[in-house]
Design a protein that fits this description.
281 residues; alpha/beta; UDP-N-acetylmuramoyl-L-alanine:D-glutamate ligase; 6-stranded mixed β-sheet; 12 strands; 34% helix; 23% strand
Length: 281
């Protein structure tokens, strides 16, 4: 669940400032990406864990309302994961995540069966690394396309990158993972390791690289941002939904870029994600 603080700027260490608005809403990278893919028209099944608390009940209801299969969203004793989001007047954000129930899950035979029935497995680092590694390894043995959003970056994720068919970092994550100082170099380094790499660049669009070479960049529509929280997740959800129906890669990236640009013009995380009818390329 997202706890959003609207504030004029980021406070300095030891400083207290006055914000303008507080909101609670559905969020989390997995939920946001699932909602984006569902709104893009995909058949989405989610493997996750939520707490047996009010936040968990609200998130389960939200997923059901969005048409997402929640059969494998488990209720556990731990508290539902939350994110504290500080949103400044320029639309930028900083986020602190408390994983809670997200760190409690194990990969069951039922989970493997649901993975085996899909075309794409999308994972984020809000779940335990060991769980993700097992899920991605199983998917690779079954010929299922694995998509990794490397956020939030937690420790060494080399094994997960090596298990990825598609890697979708934002610019900061790409620089951190590659050790490079610019997005082009980072995309080349990461894609040379194996995965098709798509680096999201915010208002500058996205950069696509494969086998150590830049293929092309896709510009983003110019918009006035009010909340960038769900932009990256919207991009991933729409990208995978498009690829799942064999949309050519460049067009899929263009669709995802437009959808992400629309999301930043609206407040909220999952609430900001556009429906397919609004996304025009």
């Amino acid at each position: 669940m997202d706890l959003v603080f609207h504030q004029p700027r980021r406070p300095e260490p030891g400083e207290t400032i006055v914000g303008s608005r507080f909101a609670i809403g559905p969020g989390g990278k997995g939920l946001n990406q699932a909602v984006a893919a569902s709104r893009a028209g995909a058949d989405v099944r989610m493997i996750s864990a939520i707490g047996s608390d009010d936040f968990g009940t609200q998130l389960h209801a939200w997923l059901t309302f969005e048409g997402i299969d929640t059969t494998f969203v488990r209720r556990v004793a731990e508290s539902t994961g939350v994110a504290q989001i500080s949103l400044t007047a320029d639309g930028e954000n900083t986020i602190v995540i408390i994983p809670g129930a997200n760190d409690s899950a194990v990969l069951s035979d039922d989970d493997r069966a649901i993975i085996d029935s899909t075309s794409h497995l999308v994972v984020q680092l809000e779940r335990p690394k060991a769980l993700l590694q097992k899920a991605m390894s199983f998917a690779r043995t079954r010929g299922i396309t694995t998509v990794l959003t490397p956020a939030p970056v937690r420790g060494d994720i080399d094994e997960l990158i090596d298990l990825s068919d598609i890697l979708v970092p934002n610019e900061g994550e790409a620089l951190m993972l590659s050790g490079e100082s610019d997005a082009d170099a980072a995309a080349r380094v990461l894609s040379a390791r194996g995965p098709l790499t798509i680096v999201t660049l915010g208002p500058r669009g996205a950069l696509v690289a494969e086998h150590g070479k830049i293929l092309y960049s896709v510009p983003a529509p110019q918009v006035e941002p009010v909340d960038t929280t769900a932009a990256g997740d919207t991009f991933v959800g729409y990208l995978v939904a498009a690829l799942a129906i064999d949309t050519p890669l460049r067009l899929a990236v263009e669709v995802a870029t437009v959808a992400a640009s629309l999301s930043v013009t609206r407040l909220g995380a999952a609430e900001s994600i556009p429906h397919a009818a609004d996304v025009k390329v």
